[in-house]
Automatic annotation (TrEMBL):
One of its GO terms (cellular component) is plasma membrane. InterPro entries: DUF1328. This is Uncharacterized protein. It comes from the Bacteria. Keywords: Cell membrane, Membrane, Transmembrane, Transmembrane helix. NCBIfam families: PRK13682.1-1, PRK13682.1-3, PRK13682.1-4, PRK13682.2-5. The chain crosses the membrane at residues 7-27, 33-51. It holds the Pfam family DUF1328.
Amino acid sequence: MLYWAIVFFIISIIAGVFGFGGIAAATAGIAQILFYIFIAVFVVMLILSLVRRQPRV
C-alpha cells in the first residue's frame, strides 16, 4: 500500500510539472488517502503484535 502511495505521489509531481493541475490534485489526493490508510494499518498491526506477544519464561 505504501508502494502505491509513492507511485501516485510521483505521478502527481510529474503531472504538476507538466501543468496538468487537475490530474496532479487527484493523484495527490489518492496518494494522501493511501498513506493515511497505511499508517492506520501499521499502528493497528503494531499494537496487535505487542498485545499478542507471549511472555518468555
